[in-house]
Every structure is written in C-alpha cells, then in structure tokens.
Design a protein that fits this description.
Elements: E1 5-6, H1 16-22, H2 32-49, E2 54-59, H3 62-73, E3 79-84, H4 87-98, E4 102-107, H5 116-125, E5 131-135, H6 147-154, E6 160-164, E7 183-187, E8 198-203, H7 205-212, H8 223-231, H9 241-257, H10 259-279, E9 295-299, H11 306-317, E10 319-320, E11 322-323, E12 332-336, H12 343-359, H13 368-378
Parallel strand pairs: 1-10, 3-4, 3-5, 5-6, 6-7
Antiparallel strand pairs: 2-8, 7-8, 9-12, 11-12
Helix pairs in contact: 1-9, 2-9, 3-4, 5-6, 10-12, 10-13, 11-12, 12-13
This protein binds pyridoxal-5'-phosphate.
C-alpha cells in the first residue's frame, strides 16, 4: 500500500487518533450526550479563536461559513470592502457581489499583503461601509496580513471586520477579541486536523447588532437561528455529528499541545521548508515580509512543469503538494506545514520533491534541500 501524505493546505493530514475518533458510532444529536459535546466544542473553539464571542457551528465546507457571514451581515445595497489578493479574497468579492452589496474591491498584487493604511483610506472615503472582508492566510499565495493593525483601524468605524481564518486558525495566530475581529470564519479540515464538513463563525456584539437587522433572505445559514439554538445548547438542523464528536478530541489535543507551541512549531517547519527550497534554487513566491506559516508557496524553475511535478509526486510516491491556482498554474507549488504535520513529514515531502525535480532535469546535487532543511530544524 502506497502512503497518502497530504502536505496540502486543506484537507490536511488526519492523525491516527482522530481517524479513530471519526470512526466512532454516531449518537443522536437531540440528547444530553451530544449537548455535552456541543458545550466542549464551543468552549474549546473559544480558546482557539481566543474569544469570548458567540461561535456558531454550521454543517458545510469553509465557504459555507463565508457565505453565512456575507448573507447575515450585508443587506442589498450595503457598502462593503473586500480585499482581493488571491483566490480566497476573490471569493469574498464574489460573495459580496452575489448578494448585491455595493462592493469596493481592494485589489492587492498576488504575493503582497493589504495594509491597515490602505483600508483606512477606503473607510475614510466610505465611512458608512458595513463590513470589511480580509483573509488571515491567503492560501493561494501564502500571504498573511497584519490583522492586528487592520483590526485597530476598522474598530474606529461603523464597519465590522470579517476574517476568513479557514486555513489560518490554529496555525497562524489570531486574537479575535484583542484584535477587534468581529466575525471570524473557519472549518474542520485545516488546522483542526479533521474531515471536511463543519464551519465555524464567531460574532462579536457589534456584529450581532448588524446581523439582527439583516435583510437578505436566508434559511439554512441564518445566524439568528444559530444563536437561538446555541443558547439552548442545540443546533438548528442535524449537524455533522461524527465530525463534532471527533472535534472534542481534536480540541483536547490542541489544548494539550498548547496554541503557542503549535504556532512556534509551524514557524519552525516553515523556516526549514523554505531553507530546503532555497538551497535548490526555488524562490519563495510571496513577499517574505508577509509570508504565512500555514504553507510555503515557491516558484518552480522555468524549465519545469509544476503540474507534472506534483502529479508524479502524488501518483508515483503518494505525496501530495498543492499546485498553483489561476495564472500560477504550473508555475508554483504550495507545501503545507499545518495541523498534525511534523518535521519528518516535511522532510519526506522535500526528499520526494528533490527526487522528482532531479528526474525532471533540474540541476542540483541530490540531498541539498534535505541538508539545508535538517540544518534549519536543528538550529535554534
Ligand atoms: C480552504 C479555504 C477556504 C474554504 O474552502 P472550502 O473548500 O469551502 O472548505 C476558505 N478560505 C481559505 C483561505 C481557505 O484556505
């Protein structure tokens, strides 16, 4: 049997103890036993989100959580600012436009980060803006902005700050309350190391006020209904029960590990992967000053087809990297270092990358990337 190592930014590698947890028999969701799990999950998520705000649990992929945020916050004609510096920022723009918001697009070159000053000047020009949409870790480019600085700016206006932390949560720090992040969206299948199927949306008192007065019709993703249910330790509909139950275990693992230790570990892995790539001539795609620790996006050499490279790695050796999206297709590879991945997982990925790149004709001494990564891992 071939290995199946996911070094991808979602879905991510699921550790064996969580695979077991996902395989446990389903219990009924209208029971005290399940209520006990809801309580544990909400409590654990609040620690990971670093918030005292409400957290609503939706059964959907991460994008469902994003749609819920847009539908509940924006009424037709409302002004919104959406940062578009990659595929996921573009998704905010598409969602805002789909629901007829008057959307100002803050375009950012792929690989660069939006700035607090940029957002301030847009808010200055449109002070009645209802919401500002940003991305904690722009998975398509490997960029993380200064969310804290952006939060300080947005807090001075009427607008709420909405953060897509689907890939970032539990990998790249977000202090929801301290940084004034009114709505934070995440999912089960990235930093939380589980199967896809659950989305989470936190809402500050400022956001709850906006949600109360929302006029866009919606049924399944109505956060007012989620709030009512949550107050009774319930969910409006049948949730992904199996994932909820396993989430109790995942959140316990995270608590035991400690968030700050996890952030430090991903930084350590990111540094090693970058050292390895650099040693064989692969240049980092994003501006290093705003590169996220969630994943490493590097440019493939001009004479190498990145699509073919990742296909061989996956189909022949069972190691999956993500490729580039849109205009970066074939030109970039994205190596995740998040969730349950450890030093030997990223070393395995780099070893395979070296092997296949070398076979495809990229010139370097085999072992160079591994040596550089090992040195980085052993350095303080
Ligand atoms: C994965 C991801 C999402 C959500 O994707 P789904 O496929 O809907 O789960 C949203 N934003 C970012 C930044 C992501 O990485």
């Amino acid at each position: 049997m071939k290995r199946n190592l996911l070094l991808t930014p979602g879905p991510t590698h699921i550790p064996p103890q969580l695979c077991e947890a996902l395989g446990r028999p389903i219990i009924h969701h209208r029971t005290p036993q399940f209520q006990d799990n809801i309580k544990k999950v909400v409590e654990g998520l609040k620690e990971v989100f670093q918030t005292k705000n409400d957290i609503y649990i939706l059964t959907s992929s991460g994008t469902g959580g994003m749609e819920a945020a847009v539908v509940n916050l924006l009424s037709p004609g409302d002004k919104a600012i959406a940062v578009d510096g990659g595929k996921f920022g573009e998704r905010w723009v598409e969602l805002c436009q789909m629901y007829k918001a008057n959307t100002v697009v803050y375009k950012v070159e792929w690989g660069k980060a939006p700035t607090a000053a940029g957002i301030k000047s847009l808010l200055e020009a449109q002070p009645d803006t209802k919401a500002v949409f940003i991305t904690l870790a722009e998975t398509s480019t490997g960029v993380t902005p200064d969310v804290k600085a952006i939060g300080e700016v947005v807090a001075q206006y009427k607008a709420v700050l909405v953060v897509d932390a689907v890939s970032g949560l539990a990998v790249e720090e977000i202090k929801t309350d301290e940084w004034h992040c009114d709505v934070v969206v995440s999912g089960s299948h990235k930093g939380l190391m589980l199967a896809p199927g659950l989305a989470f949306v936190s809402a500050s008192p400022k956001a709850i006020e906006v949600i109360k007065n929302g006029k866009t019709p919606c049924y399944y993703f109505d956060l007012r209904e989620c709030k009512k249910a949550m107050e009774k330790v319930d969910t409006p509909f049948t949730p992904a029960i199996g994932i909820m139950n396993a989430l109790v275990d995942s959140l316990e693992m995270i608590k035991k590990d400690g968030l700050s230790n996890m952030f430090a570990r991903y930084k350590h892995l990111a540094r090693a992967v970058r050292a390895g790539c650099k040693a064989i001539g692969l240049e980092l795609f994003p501006d290093p000053s705003c590169a996220t620790n969630v994943l490493t996006a590097v440019k493939v050499p001009a004479n190498i087809d990145g699509e073919k490279l990742t296909k061989i790695m996956r189909d022949t050796y069972g190691i999956t990297f993500a490729g580039g999206q849109d205009h970066l297709k074939g030109k970039v590879i994205r190596i995740a270092h998040m969730g349950a991945l450890d030093e030997y997982d990223v070393l395995t990925g780099l070893a395979c990358l070296e092997k296949v790149l070398h076979q495809m004709g990229h010139q370097f001494e085999l072992g160079t990337a591994l040596a550089a990564a090992q040195k980085s891992l052993n350095a303080k």
